[in-house]
Amino acid sequence: MKELDKKLNEYFGGKVVRKDLTKLVKGNAIVPTYVLEYLLGQYCATDDEETIVQGVETVKSIISKHFVHRDEAQMIKSTVREKGSHRIIDKIAVKLNDKKDQYEASFANLGLNRIPIADIVIREHPKLLSSGVWCILTLAYVSTDEKDSTPWIIESIKPIQVSNIDLEDYKSVREFFAKDEWIDILMQSIGLNPDEFTMRSKLLQLARLIPFVENNYNLIELGPKGTGKSHIYSEMSPHGILISGGEVSKAKLFVNNSNGEIGLVGYWDIVAYDEFAGKTKKSDRGLVDIMKNYMANKSFSRGTEVYGASASMVFVGNTDHPVAYMIKHSNLFEALPRDYYDTAFLDRIHAYLPGWEVQKLRNEMFTEDYGFIVDYLAEVLKELRKQDRTHEYTNYFDLSDSITTRDKTSIAKTFAGLAKVIYPHGKMTEEDAKELLDFAIESRKRVKQQLQKMDETFEEVDFSYTVKNTGKQVFIETLEMIEYGPEKEKQTESETNTSKPKGDEETVRLVLSEGQKIIRDNQSGISYDNLFGAYLLGATDIKVIDPYVRLPYQLRNFMELAKLIAEKKEPGIEVKLHLVTANNEEYIANAKDAFEQMEYSLESIGILFSYEFDENAHDRSIVMDNGWKIVLGRGLDIWQKTGGWYDINEYMQEKRLCKGCEVTFVKK
Question: What is the pTM of this model?
């Protein structure tokens, strides 16, 4: 196991499971992930391979022999009757029958109802009284002639969901983990490999958990297909429900006037609408009006009654166009059904997650390491809903007075949700709080910017805040506006005029200046050319210092730099290009072979390439004889991985998502 996995098992033994095992045991069984992971945690919470193999086979056997499929219910009942008793796995919900003064159980898949269950079981597992718990139990059959009695008897029962959690223990143990460690654990817990994600990408994934910890939280995520937008709401927790198609009636969602039954918002912590987008989808305008009231006031009325509920609303769907097109020609809500394309409804949204920043899930993005059993994590998150942490950001920051009450509420709820997820113990530094506040403000500003485009009566808002201990004012902008907004268009036009000399090289040099460029996580539109291409002009001796030029994509980056140098140099002029890098025994042979091939190849286009290995090389920079030095915070490795040969991002730098870094230009 990795060190983090060992540490996680040490502090949370029995509450964690190796995530790749779930696929091994699930097969074609229609079994919730949280049930499988509970069983795996019982038999496979170890690093001993033999024990894991045996445990996987045990879980497979348990699922095969004891799980009740709805279409096999009658067969299972017959087995119980013929054998006298039989162990089964089913979802059990219990209600008190006050007329008979006894608790009675119902079986979700087996179809049995009103089966007596002992009081002691309820005292030990009170969660059985809520929406139901998956259990492994011994069910017996004893024929009887007594009137109003049942032949079915629950002999023993053991919940296979987590029935009780110790929230205080969870919070206290959190202190033994650093922020980055805890974030990686949460990523692994939802099945993802944290090594494949930048910090911003991790926050986007964890933001999907906010509706699980924050009451009455309204979230929307629109983006391309295949990014896992809805998966977490169907598999993560027994307290959420995913409605396919995004179409539902007033009666099903809120309350049925004919019989008074409360709808989904009364029973679930989260109601998520899958495939919500689609301009041609039909919707009930009356439902939209009820939802507007509920999302704003946490209550709804049908007839003369007013009902309150705490269910969070999540809307996920696919966009019709790339984000650059939407920014220029329409808005980020353009794909919604007509009745939901309503500024009053959309103004109730607390946060808009930019689904276009989330990469399509590839095999290497799934984890094989340990994470929390999802049902355990779901119960923790449910308990955290009871806490209010919406005012914690005010310990360090003051929001601008121009931000409206609805905007402030949205920002505070997003901040509080992430704080509960990442810092459940309540301890965070000013820097930690700033990271969450910046994300929360950006998520709300994305909503407000689109509302202003849709309706001119929405006034422009100053989404800034002041740092209390310094008085510094911080302005927040959404990433897509940095990439594709009006200011970016002006910058692109300016760069076009200075990207390559057209007869007067000195004119180009005059516009260059010292300074710093900050690249944000997940930013696109960045190439070596528009980042520092103009600074290469006139250079004939270039030294690149980057300790990490050894892996295939790093070698690709270096060759792309060499290509740019060839494009910027004057025809007939030779340029010396020297690389100082580090290496180790595992990669050095391949690196030498690659560099020798580069040397031969680049000579044909007038670049004299040489290299050296220096184990003390740590700084990352490009030093040129034209008087400029470019300090590269991450070296040449500024982009996230692409999808491979058949991903256009592999061939177009501007299409790749960036890693957060800084580039500094120094005049020698």
Answer: 0.82
